[in-house]
Amino acid sequence: MIGLVFALPQELESLRARLGPSSRLHADGLTFYYACVGRQPVVLVKSGIGRERSKRATESLLRIFDVDVVISAGLAGGLSDGVRTGELIIARGLVDYCHKENPGGVPAGSSCPCHRSLVDLSCKLAREGGLEFHCGDLVTVDEAVVQPALKRRIGEATSAVAVDMEGAGVAEAAAASGTPFLALKALSDEIDDELKGCDLVDGEGRVKILSVISYLINNPLDLTYLLRMRHKTGVALDKLALFLRYFAERYRETSNPLHMVEK
């Protein structure tokens, strides 16, 4: 079984809509969705935003289900020139990084490699599908990196191609259980994109309607920006969902998972 951990409801729903009928299980304050892609079973869960939420959701996933492989999936921000919206990020490794402790600098963080066979398989399938993708390190931070200048500093210091807020939490829980781990992301914002309105969603990724109304009353010119970013996010999620489905379809066909992935 493939386990997929998403931070945001729209990330999960983008894939679930392409899976057909699914079963639902409520446990540990989470909702798990179980479905099959061909003969390959998959289970999806939304963790909410941040490293600790993603770690707890992954721990629950691994305790409840017999998962062979766990994937941190969702959106990421660009840390390198030439990485464009909608392009696939196949993480070679995760860098656990806390810039909040030193906002002006870029302290080195601990790193965790993704399972090499899963990385190689993902790259192979992306090439087969004719997808634009980047294989490199993914940095996990504890708060959104909103300024292009800080994105660039983190990218230069770590040589990572993208940044998220959940990957390291999933990786930690997977490592503790001995479960092979992979991170697959789609780029939503490029390195020179400033992020606005990050506080318009809560920790579970739900839009705070009253906050949006208040924000637009005070910043009416940002409506065009928010609509543009929504479109970018939609493009990225569509491409990610299509690849995740393709990965699940081909995972069992490509090789015996028990032989391909050694725990």
Q: Can you offer a commentary on this structure?
A:
- This protein has 8 helices and 10 strands.
- The chain has 263 residues and is of the alpha/beta class.
- It has one domain (2-260): 3-Layer(aba) Sandwich (Rossmann fold).
- Strands 5-9-8-6-10 form a 5-stranded mixed beta barrel, surrounded by 5 helices.
- The longest helix has 32 residues, at 223-254.
- It starts with a strand and ends with a helix.
Write the layout of secondary structure elements.
Blueprint: E1 2-6, H1 9-16, E2 23-27, E3 30-37, E4 40-46, H2 51-64, E5 69-78, E6 88-96, E7 110-113, H3 116-128, E8 133-140, H4 148-158, E9 162-164, H5 167-177, E10 181-189, H6 209-218, H7 223-254, H8 257-260
Parallel strand pairs: 1-4, 1-5, 5-10, 6-8, 8-9
Antiparallel strand pairs: 2-3, 3-4, 5-9, 6-7, 6-10
What name goes with the CATH superfamily? Nucleoside phosphorylase domain
The largest pleated sheet is described as:
5 strands, mixed, barrel
Give the count of helical stretches.
8
Helix-strand pattern: EHEEEHEEEHEHEHEHHH
Counting helices, strands and paired strands, the structural category is alpha/beta
Main sheet: strand order: 5-9-8-6-10
Average pLDDT figure: 87
What is the domain tally? 1
